[in-house]
Amino acid sequence: MAEILVLVDHADGAVKKVTLELLTKARALGEPSAVFVGAGYDKAAEKLAEYGAAKVYVAEDAELEGYVTAPKAELLAKLVAEHAPAAVLVPATAEGKEVGARLAVKSGSGILTDAVDVSPELIAEQSIFGGSTVAHSKVTQGTPIIAMRPNATAPEAAPAAAERVDVSVDLSDSAKLAKIVEKVVLPKGDRPELTEASIVVSGGRGVGSGENFAIIEKLADALGAAVGASRAAVDAGWYPHQAQVGQTGKTVSPQLYIAAGISGAIQHRAGMQTSKTIVAINKDDEAPIFELADYGVIGDLFKVVPQVTDEILKRK
Amino acid sequence: MKIVVCVKQVPDTEAEKRLLPDTLTVDRESSNPVLNEMDEFAIEEALKLVEAHGGEVVVLTMGPDGADAAVRKALSMGADSGILLSDPALAGSDAVATSYAIAQALGTTEYDLVILGSEASDARTSLVPAMLAERLGVPQLTFASKVEIDGTDITVNRLTDYGHDVVKATLPAVVSVVEKINEPRYPSFKGIMAAKKKPIAQLDVASASIDAAQVGAAGAWTAVADAAQRPPRSAGVKVADEGDGGVKLAEFLSAQKFI
């Protein structure tokens, strides 16, 4: 069976959910080979085996993680040249897409981004223009590189051998031009990551202040959800940039999206309208967010959000 | 210091976007073309760096004839001159072909720094800045929320899922910026008047030494097979809160098995 390379997204060996999604999808296309770069493989091995990696190319050299994206692209280009895989799957995250971008140029290959599905013929289904259009695209030159949108595939376990194959690459000078001198990790707490969460609760202009975001967080915690924010709330400094959902922020596609105090400007809709179920809470019954909502509450979020939070906690 | 800012003209952010059914390329006629919003942050950052360190800001765009409007906007904000790369052969270029064409156009000018917005609001791929760094063989400093220059040393904060990385490199470099980085200035009346007199150089495929076979629809390494607009979501239930809105919402969430 044709080999499919899957770039593993992980933090010190803690494998991200999107990797399991990619392995699941890769199994329908051929035989998945995971590509693990950096430290922590011992921690990751079991998970990669559980989700069907027949082989894992392990590159533990710390230098590969010390520079911006170019070393990973160089390693992948070497693997592509040596093993001629049928396709390379990367996560459609900022980092994954950039590694794919450089790999495309290096290997003379086309790249497709924001795929929500891939057929056995390697035709990617893309959700574009903020989810308003569905396109089917293919790569016409080189090795298809496909960046898969997190949360688009349900991960399914299917144990495989995960045979370890150690690999290395002699980095070119040009791969070492942008040196990472410090990693600043913001305290994350226990909430799931925004793009991976199956439930997202977002607050917008209607929340009114940074302190008031506490009621959004309480609802999120009651549901085990991630917290998002509209651009208005982020621009006002009420919530960190990393939480921004929308055209110039993150695209999310959770099972449930709750928008509180968000009017639903097109920028915001572009980042969340492929969510499976959408709930809106807004004082303004003309707010465009209600056009998308499966369930809309016209009301004061300061009354509705604490009430639904209490009710959820009661029912648990 | 010479900074080239690469900008893109895109369909109005406020308008619904679609693909043309016959060519499956972005419909640029049905809405007003505007300067890609994220590029305003790139222009602002370039202007600030030149104000602090001296030099000039050149704005480069690739697009159809009318795309010089995007360059004029940048000139009215304070950029010094523009370059319009325009040629029928470029129509339909994908990210790989676009990055090649821009890299060739950059070959016609000197630069210490190339700055771009981190994504365009139409395709939202974020591919071109990384591809450009790869092609030019210069450091890639993308998703920057802060840029500092000291002589030929450049340091940026690169936004990541966990916070940010501090990244160091030596000029020349490719930088892409996120909107968190600054507050773009509005063009002044004086700026708008001055922009009319600023030069915009014209480039085509031949003058930028672009191999026409590597650009446009023929040179793209990806192809759209079909596209359809997703049917609009059917409106759901809408209830006014009469004191029990939260309880009713909980009932809905419970019925949907979210609780």
Low-confidence stretches of chain B: none
N-to-C SSE string of chain A, H for helix and E for strand: EEEHEHEHEHEEEEEEEHEHEHEHEH
Count the DSSP helices of chain A.
Answer: 9
Using only C-alpha atoms, the radius of gyration of chain A works out to 21 Å
Strand content of chain B: 25-35%
The number of E-state strands of chain A comes to 17
The N- to C-terminal Cα distance of chain B equals: 58 Å
Give the oligomeric state.
Answer: heterodimer
> What is the number of E strands of chain B?
13
H/I helix tally of chain B: 7
Query: What portion of the residues of chain A fall into strands of 2 or more residues?
Result: 25-35%
- Main sheet: strands, sense, barrel of chain A: 9 strands, mixed
Order of helices and strands of chain B: EEEHEHEHEHEEEEHEHEEH
Radius of gyration of chain B: 21 Å
Protein structure class of chain B: alpha/beta
Which protein chains are joined by the largest interface, and how many residues does each one contribute?
A: A-B, 91 and 89 residues
Largest sheet of chain B: 9 strands, mixed
Shape of chain B: globular
Distance between the termini of chain A: 47 Å
Trace the largest sheet of chain B across and list its strands: 9-8-7-10-6-1-4-5-11
The share of residues in helices of chain A is 25-40%
